[in-house]
Every structure is written in structure tokens, then in C-alpha cells.
Specification:
5 strands; alpha/beta
Length: 146
């Protein structure tokens, strides 16, 4: 079974999945929608990916402010979490996503990707960072126990 990472934005959702051992994350796709309130097709696509990859847990990036407060974007993300739980029936874990988009941008710059092409993959890469952070936390906790 695998774990899915999501980077939820106002018009996109970046998607990443773990390998079957739960050690590494890789980007899968970016789901686009016309407006923030149009979630039906987005949720249907996530549900299809959950089935395709046999996902057992979803890790959702939680966009806290840098001062650790919760703003409008975080509130909308919590609402999206509830929609995910209702649609998939899976556990949805919130993972701090601060600076993941900046890290994804650094990857794109290092790869020589043109600025106008960033949006095609920046959210998918950020989802990979969110998921990898979660996987690394699980691995570190397991190592401490042994």
C-alpha cells in the first residue's frame, strides 16, 4: 500500500505518491480546475488515483503562516480535508508545507525550466516535498524505536 501527498491550491492540486515501501515520494500529476469552489472533478480524480495506486493514507499540505498562525488558505485546506475524508474514507494527515513551494521553485530553476513553465509542475513537485517530509518523519520515528 502507498501514501499519497497533496498540495492543495486555489486552482490546482499537486499529487505525489510513495513507493510501495513508503520510503520515497514521486510526483504524479497536477490536477487543474477552473475555480476554487469546483471540487467535484478534482475529488473524483483523486479518488481514481487512490484506487490506481492502492493508497491507504493521504498526506495533505497544511499552509500555516510563517508565524505558525492559521490563515484563510489553511482554513480552506481544512475544508478540503473534510471533503477528502468524506469522498475517500481514508485517514488524511495534515503536514506542514511551509517553504515547499519555494523548494520546488529552486528545483525548477536548477533544472533550467523557464519561469512561464513553472506552473505545469511546481505543485506536483511541492506535493513530493510534502510527502517526503512525512515519510522521513515516519522513518525517523521507526529508527528511534529500534
Amino acid at each position: 500500500m502507498r501514501i499519497m501527498g497533496l498540495d492543495y491550491g486555489s486552482k490546482t492540486v499537486g499529487v505525489a505518491v510513495s513507493d510501495s515501501l513508503g520510503l520515497t515520494a514521486r510526483g504524479v500529476e497536477t490536477i487543474w480546475r477552473k475555480s476554487e469552489s469546483k471540487l467535484r472533478q478534482t475529488l473524483a480524480r483523486i479518488e481514481a488515483l487512490v484506487e490506481e495506486y492502492q493508497v491507504e493514507t493521504i498526506v495533505l499540505g497544511f499552509p500555516k503562516n510563517m508565524d505558525d498562525t492559521i490563515g484563510d488558505r489553511a482554513v480552506k485546506t481544512l475544508e478540503f480535508k473534510e471533503a477528502l475524508v468524506n469522498r475517500t474514507g481514508l485517514v488524511v494527515v495534515m503536514e506542514d508545507e511551509r517553504l515547499t513551494t519555494a523548494a520546488a521553485k529552486d528545483v525548477l530553476i536548477a533544472e533550467g525550466i523557464k519561469k512561464q513553465d513553472y506552473k505545469k509542475s511546481i505543485d506536483m513537485i511541492a506535493a513530493g516535498f510534502i510527502l517526503q517530509g512525512y515519510l522521513d518523519e515516519i522513518y525517523a520515528k521507526q529508527r528511534k524505536r529500534h
